[in-house]
Amino acid sequence: MGSTHTSMAARQPLDAYGVLLSHGPSTTSELGVTSIGTETRRDNPELGRLHLRARGMNSPKTVWYAEDRHDPRDVVRKYVDVNPGVLDRPHRAIVQLFGDHSDMLAWAWGEVADEYDVERLEHEHGETEHGGTCGLCGEDYEYTLPDHLEKDCEA
Ligand SMILES: [Zn+2]
User: CB within 5 A of ion ligand 1: which residues?
Assistant: First the structure.
C-alpha cells in the first residue's frame, strides 16, 4: 500500500471510492478508512463488498471493488492475498465459497486457481480428488471424503 493513497485518504476521508478506483480491489484499511458507510455504498451502486464467512477463517478481511471497473479475477486474487485461510480447503469448496457471493467470482476463482497450487495442498493432506465410496452411508462421492462428509453425507 503506497503512501500516496494513504495521504489522499487522509485529506479526503469521504472519497474512499475514488481511492478504490485508482488503487484496485482494496481492504477497508487500504482505503484509509475504518469502515465504508451505507451512504457511500448508496451513492456508488457499483461498489462491491466481498466478505466471505467460512469455517477456519478467523476475522476474514473485507475486500472492496468496483463491479464494472475491476477485473473479477483481480478481486479474487486480492481476497486470497489478504485471506490466505481461504486456500485451506479443496478447490471445489473454494468455488462454492466464492459462488455464495456471485457466479462471476466463482468463475473468476476457476480462472486463477492454478496460480495457487491448491491441488498440491490436497495431496499433502493425503486426500484424493477422484472420489470413492463412503463407508458411513454407502454413497459414492465424486471428490474427497472430507468434502462428502461435510456437505452430502446422509449417515
Ligand atoms: Zn456418506
Answer: 134, 136-137, 153, 155
